[in-house]
Amino acid sequence: MKEHHPMDILAQRHDLEAFRAAIRQWLEQTVPAGWPEKMARAPEAEFIEFQRWWFGELVKVGLATPHWPRQWGGEDLSITHQVVMYEEIARANAPNPTMYVISLYHLPATLFAWATQEQIDRFLPTVKQGVIWCQGFSEPNAGSDLAALRTRAERVGDNYIVNGQKVWSSNAAHAEYCLLLVRTDLDAPKHKGITFLILKMDSPGVEIRPIRQANGNAEFCEIFLDNVAIPVANRIGEENQGWQIAQSTLSAERGLIIFELSERMHHFFEDMLAQARAGRAHWHEDAGQRREFIQAYTEMQALRAMIRKMQRTLEQTGEMGPMPSYIKIFYSELLQRFTDLLVRIEGLSAQVLRPGLICGVYPTGNPLYDFISSWVWTISGGANEIIKNIIAERLIGLPREG
C-alpha cells in the first residue's frame, strides 16, 4: 500500500483500509513514548499543557471533531470511520483529551439544537481554538434531582444578575466558558422556571475552588457566583426553557463519549488475555478469577454491540433514543465490577494508592486508582439510581411506588 503523509488522513476516508493505516502511522509518529507514566506523576500545570498540546495535534489532522457534521465545521466521518479511529487510538494507547469533553460533545449538542446562528458562529469556533468549556448544572442540594437547583438569575436590563453555587464542575479551574443552568422563575414548577446561560469564567464575582477527590485528583470544582452579570445575549433558547435544553446537553454526556471509552476497555481486556496466553499472568490459574474475567469480558463485548447498535441508529435516524441511558448504566457498573476484580488480582500491592491519569474513566492498569475513580461514572451524567427510575417509569411504564 502506498504510504501517505499523516496530514492526508482525511483524504483516505474513501478507502477504509488506507484510512486505518494513515491513522496508525500518524499515531506511531505522534504519541509520545511513556506518556502515561510521565503524566500520572506530572504537576497539574504540566498535565494541562500536555492536554492542550495533544488536542492541538488532533485538530491539525482533523481528528478532534470526527463526530461533528460539516455544518458544525466538523469532519462528518461515518460511524464506521469513527469506530476505526477509536480502535486505533485504543490500540496505540494514545492520550484522551479528557479536558475537552464539554467542548467537544455538550456544547455543540446544545448549540445546534437550541442556539441562534449568531451564537453558533460566536461560540462554536472556540472549540478548535483549544478553549476549554465546563458545565455548571449540579448544586450541593441539586445533583441527582437537578430540577431542584436554586442558583438565582434576575434580569436587569440587558444582563442577568446571578447568585448561587455550583458543584462537581469538571475542569472549571481551567475553563474559559461554562454552560450554566439558573432559576429565573421562583413561582413556576421546578422544571419550568430554569434558564440556560453561557457564563464567561473570568467575569467579576466568579470564584472557583477545586475539590480534592478520593483518588487524589482535583479536576472537579465548586463555582461560587456573587452578583455575576451575564448578558442576555448569552441566553440559549427562551427564558424558562432551560430544562428542555439541558436534556440535549445530558444526552451527549450519556451517549457519545462512551464510544472511545469502550474501545479502550476492549483493548485492556485483550492485553490481559495476551499476557495470560503468554504465561505472564497468574490470574487465569485461579478458577474464580477466571470465571469473573470471562463474565466481564462477555459483558464488555455486549457493551460494544450495544454501542454499535446505537451508532447505527444515530447514523440512520439522527436520534439515539433511550440507548445512552442503558449504556451509561451498563458501562459504569461493568467498570466498577471489573476494576474491583483487578484490585483483587494484584493483591496486597494494589492497596497502595498510586497517582493516576485523569482519563475519563477507563482501566489504566493502576488498580486501586482505577477502582476508586470508577465511582465517578455511576454518579456523573445522572446517578444510576435516578436513571433507572426514569427508565422504569417513563420507558417501561412501571407505576411509582406509593
Please provide the count of β strands.
8
CATH topology of the largest domain: Butyryl-CoA Dehydrogenase, subunit A, domain 3
Structural class category: alpha+beta
Shape label: globular
Reported for the largest beta sheet, the result is:
4 strands, mixed
From the 3D coordinates, which CATH architecture of the largest domain would you assign?
A: Up-down Bundle
Percent helix among the residues? 40-55%
* Rg of Cα set: 22 Å
- Let me know the average pLDDT: 90
- Corresponding CATH superfamily of the largest domain: Butyryl-CoA Dehydrogenase, subunit A, domain 3
| CATH classification, class level of the largest domain | Mainly Alpha
The helix count comes to 13
Biggest sheet strand line-up: 1-4-5-8
Strand portion: 5-15%
Whole-Å distance between the termini? 66 Å
Low-confidence stretches: 1-6
When the domains are counted, the total is: 3
List keywords for this structure.
402 residues, globular, 13 helices, 4-stranded antiparallel sheet, Butyryl-CoA Dehydrogenase, subunit A, domain 2, Butyryl-CoA Dehydrogenase, subunit A, domain 3, disordered N terminus, 3 domains
